[in-house]
């Protein structure tokens, strides 16, 4: 069959789709990856076929508060606090909060990063290429529109917690209690006309919840940490993909002291343009610990620092999949790739979550599972971070909890092992369509 992957146009989001794309390719299926031209090189470096659609996104510029039209009080990262979709406390998911999330994020994030030109190009390509399955990123709704326009089955591939599924479940419950004339759904108000522009309207063709949550969801988050939702879900083992890399020689040597990885990842800097946590404060916190710290810092971060502590080895990049097996703990920003790679290797975590999508609730669920400690960036002090690192290193319960989730992941079907199930789902979808279903 033909499978079209549609990631958000950021390198980290491409990386999240590579293992499944290659599993389908290795099973003999034809695979293409379509998104804005920004990440064409990331796609082709992974050995996959890229289809550039639309104009370059330049995501950091798109998300620059100075260019979004936000009022001054919501600039800098205040908009992420005020409009945080990672708020999942049921007591706080009021109708007003839920509507505010969709009313703000639909134009500011979703529509801003998935413009009409990109959707139109993707629909044109899909109608010409005729994929059997479209696998799309939960951050972009061009994929399901193209799937519906071309008659393909479609599925979301998550990179973290299913915030969209949770928020839509709660928001739909709010809307269903209102008279039809008062049901104001910002996503429908955006995507409904998009579908109509491509000749799609009416039952099974116009807007419905499958355009938001997929016909089914492929989820790499371990079931014990995932949000429990009544949606068709295909669990898949997380397989780390770090892009092209060379393993440094020093990594072949056993560390003389317990090794701790410190990384703030690239996702927040790639999307917003900077880090939230202070690198200097993080390094000061571990400077006097009897550990070897491997800190992934780029030239811009290093330029802002003075001399590094003697127990810190700074590297611009090292593949986490190769580094973390030698680590006793990892300090990080809560990003999906770092978090899941640490789970895959059973490494206890100290999370200082950048306020980006599901970083905070993901850190909280890891803390509740006993494999991590966490602290918001605005409450971080060197002393508090040092105490968390020491506790994670010295309390064996964290390593045991991390090993338990690692074993759960190892028992989850790999990307290659879910391919036959995906084939059956696509065949069932096509059968439903022949029998008049949506």
From TrEMBL:
Residues 281-425 form the Erythromycin biosynthesis protein CIII-like C-terminal domain. NCBIfam families: glycosyl_450act. This is Glycosyl transferase family 28. CDD domains: GT1_Gtf-like (cd03784). Keywords: Antibiotic biosynthesis, Glycosyltransferase, Transferase. It comes from Streptomyces showdoensis. Belongs to the glycosyltransferase 28 family. InterPro entries: EryCIII-like_C, EryCIII-like_N, Glycosyl_450act, Glycosyltransferase_28, UDP_glucos_trans. Residues 22-265 form the Erythromycin biosynthesis protein CIII-like N-terminal domain. GO terms for biological process: antibiotic biosynthetic process. GO terms for molecular function: hexosyltransferase activity; UDP-glycosyltransferase activity. The keyword Plastid does not apply.
